[in-house]
Amino acid sequence: MLAIANSQQMKGQFIRTATNVGTRNSTYHVSLHEIPDILQVTVVSLLSFSAVNEEKVFLVKVSGPRVSELPIASGYILWEDGSMR
């Protein structure tokens, strides 16, 4: 959650950890879903792992207009390795 006072510009960053639940030498690509057009979200585009249960830390940056100009908004990040499980 990003707590911002009313009339302040939205700007924040989140540190997250992803764990490889796939096979060794897996690469996951990111896709952003349901992010409103007025928000800018940046995150590294892929994570490469060499072992099962290996963890990688990544940064998500979010910015947008002043909070008073923005309705409640949400979206999500999806990491996929290309396989269907």
Report on this structure:
By secondary structure, this protein is mainly β. It has no helices and six strands. The chain has strands at residues 9-19, 27-33, 40-43, 46-48, 55-66, 76-80. A three-stranded antiparallel sheet has the order 1-5-3, with no helix packed on it. It is elongated. The mean pLDDT is 88.
Distance between the termini: 30 Å
Largest beta-sheet characterization: 3 strands, antiparallel
**SSE-based structural type:** mainly beta
Mean of residue pLDDT values: 88
Number of helices, where a helix is a run of at least 4 consecutive DSSP H or I residues: 0
Can you give the helix content as a percent range?
Answer: under 10%
Question: Are there runs of 5+ residues with pLDDT below 50, and where?
Answer: none
- Side by side, the strands of the main sheet go 1-5-3
The shape is elongated
- SSE string, helix = H, strand = E? EEEEEE
Which key phrases capture this entry?
elongated; 3-stranded antiparallel β-sheet; mainly beta; 49% strand; 85 residues
Write the layout of secondary structure elements.
Elements: E1 9-19, E2 27-33, E3 40-43, E4 46-48, E5 55-66, E6 76-80
Antiparallel strand pairs: 1-5, 2-4, 2-6, 3-5
Compact overview of the structure:
With 85 residues, the chain is mainly beta. It has strands at residues 9-19, 27-33, 40-43, 46-48, 55-66, 76-80.
